[in-house]
Amino acid sequence: MRVAPTWVRRPMSLLVVVGLGFAVTLLPLLVLVAVALSAVLPGRWRALRLLAFAFVYLAVECAALAVAFVLWLVSGCGWKLSSPAFQRAHYAVIHLVLAVVLGSATLLFHLRVVDDEVSWSPLDDGVPGSTNAMLVLSRHAGPGDSLLMVRTLMRRDHDRRPRIVLKDLLQLDPLIDVYLNRLPNAFLTPGRGDLAAQVGRLAEGMGEEDALLIFPEGGNFSEGRRLRAIDRLRGKGLHERAAQAASLRHVLPPKHAGVAAALAAAPEADVVLVAHTGLEHLSSPADLWDGLPMDSVVRMRWWFVPAAEVPREPEAQAAWLFDRWAEIDAWVASYVEA
User: How confident is the model at residue 298 (pLDDT cuts 50, 70, 90)?
Assistant: First the structure.
C-alpha cells in the first residue's frame, strides 16, 4: 500500500483539530459513557482510561501541530527549516511530546520502565567511546516500544538526536508525518525501491550527537510472524539459516541488509543493542484492550559494542548480528519463561 502524497496528507491535520473540538464539546457525555462501560466491563476503569489517554494524545497532537505551523512561518515559510536552529527546535518539541504521551500512558495504564540490574547504558556522558555516532539495534515487540526507544535516546543523560527507520504507513499520523519528515528519518515502503540503500543514505553524515534507530526484525514479534520468517528462509533454500531462526523463541530472525548498509555508510559508529520485555503479549488491538490496565514492568537491557569490534566482512557481520540476536532472545527468555 502506497501512502498518499504530501499535498493530500497535510490537510488531514485539520481533522485532528476538528476531532479535538468535538472531543472537548462532547467530553461530559463521553466521560459518562466511559464510566458506564467501565462498570460492566472487566478490568479497572478500562474504557475511562482509554478515553483519558486518547484525549491527552489528541490535545498534545493539536498543540504540536500548532507549534509546527509557527515554526514553518518563522523559518520563512519553510525556507530555513533544515537549519541547525530549527532542527533543534523540532527535536525539542518531539522530546516534550514523548514525555507527556509516555508519562500519561505510564500513569493511566500502570506501566513501569526499569533497566535490568546488569544494564549499562553506554550513551551517558563520560563513558569512553560514547561520543561516536550510534547505531541502535532494538528488539521490536509490543505497542509503543519505538516511542519508548526514541524517548530514551533523547533523555538528558543520553542527549541524542535520533534518526529513525519507519514504515511509510506511520505518515498517516499527522504529527509523525509533519515532524519526522522535517528531520533526518526514513519512511520505507515494503517492496518498493532498495530499502537497504535508503537506510544507508540515512546513516550518512551522522555526527557525535546522532543515533540511528533500526528494528532489524522488520516488525513486531508474534509467533505467527516467527513461523512465517522461518518458512521464508526455507523457501529460499537457506536451510541452515532457517534452523538457526527456529532456535529463537522470543524474537524474529534479524534482517542483515539494512544494518549492513548503515554500518557501511557510518563505519565509525558504535553499536548499541537493546532488548526489552513486558509488552510482547500485547500484539494486537484486542490484546491491548484485554490487557488494560497493564500493571506491567517493562524491563530494558543495553549492550554496547565499539565500532572497532564490529565485523566488516558481510558473512561474518551477518553471523555476528544473528549471535547478538540470540543473546537478546536468551535475555527475554530469562524473564518470559521464569
Answer: confident
Nearest partner of 216 among 176, 144, 273, 178, judged by Cα: 273
Q: How does DSSP assign 248-312, residue by residue?
A: -SSSPPPPHHHHHHHHHH-TT-EEEEEEEESSTT--SHHHHHHT-S--EEEEEEEEEE-GGGS--
Is the pLDDT confidence value at 215 over 50?
A: yes
Cis peptide before 174 (omega within 30 of 0): no
Residue 2 DSSP class: P
CA dihedral 144, 145, 147, 151 (to 10 degrees): 140
**Across-strand partners of 113?**
298
Residue 115 pLDDT grade (very low, low, confident, very high; cuts 50, 70, 90): confident
Residue type, 90: H
Give, rounded to a whole angstrom, the gap between the first and last alpha carbons of the chain: 40
Q: Residue 163 pairs with which residues in a beta bridge?
A: 212
Beta-strand ranges (E) seen in the chain are: 111-115, 134-138, 161-167, 186-188, 210-214, 270-277, 296-305
**DSSP structural state of residue 3:** P
The pTM score is: 0.90
The number of residues in the chain equals: 338
Confidence band of 284 (pLDDT split at 50, 70, 90): low
- Tens of pLDDT, residues 151-208: 888 876 677 899 999 988 889 899 999 999 999 999 998 777 789 999 999 999 999 8
- Which value, in Å, is the radius of gyration of the alpha carbons in the chain? 21
Across the range 285-312, mean pLDDT stands at 82
Closest CA to 69 of 185, 182, 187: 182
| C-alpha to C-alpha distance for 50 and 60, rounded to whole angstroms | 15
- Could you tell me the three cell numbers for 66? 500548532
Spatial separation of the C-alpha atoms in residues 306 and 129, rounded to whole Å: 7
